[in-house]
Each structure stands twice: as structure tokens, then as C-alpha cells.
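Weekly structure sync, notes
Attendees: PL (lead), two postdocs, one rotation student
Agenda item 3: pending single-chain targets
PL asked that the sequence for the first pending target be pasted directly into the notes so everyone works from the same version. It is reproduced below exactly as submitted, 119 residues in total.
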Amino acid sequence: MSIRDKVISLLGRQFKPYVKRSPEWFELRRKWLDKHPFCAACGGTEKLEVHHIVPVHIDPSRELDETNLITLCEAKDRNCHFVFGHFHNWYAWNPNVIEDTKHYLEEKKEAYEKIGKKI
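Predicted structure, written out during the meeting:
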């Protein structure tokens, strides 16, 4: 067991896998968030992350592939990135994240409309 894994087991929490990023990633991320400035799951705008549908630690060749990206939040009260993107496990991934977040957001909008609120 690595030192990192020992720390994780002692603290009872997970950390995101470390991934070395390409120099182009930061510019692509900025442009992506300019085009997609809200969480695909909840519609929020706090603490947005660009999630890789197929994680970079699984397939590094897809790091800059825009068809592999979706915006998800890490807001303190919901963390859609961790929930929808990783099923509460940073080493897991949801290949159906686009469909799942779309369905959740539609249900949330319908529920809000019933009580006269907007997202």
C-alpha cells in the first residue's frame, strides 16, 4: 500500500488521482468554461470544473478531446462532479454522465416549475 493510500485510509477520504496536464489544457479549459458556464447537472455556476468523461488517468490521449468534456460543479452543498462524474469515488467514472446529468437537470427544472421557481 502506497503512502498516499495509507493517508487516504486513515483520513477516510479520497483525493483525485494526480494527472500531469498538457500545456494546452489550461487554455482549452478556460475556453470550455466560457462556452459552458454552468453545471450540466444542477445548472449552478459555483466552483465549476471541466470533467473528462473518460478520465485522463484512463486514456491520456483524450485530455484535449472536446467530445470528452462536460462542465460539472464542485459546490460545497452538491458536488455534481464527484456525484455524477465519479459515483462518489474519484477512481470511478460514469460513461453515461451526459445522459444522467441531462435527465437530472430536466427533473430539477420540472420540480422547480411546480413550486413556481426557476433554476
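Discussion points:
- The first strand starts at residue 48 and ends at 52.
- The longest helix spans residues 97-114.
Action: rotation student to compare against the earlier draft before next sync.
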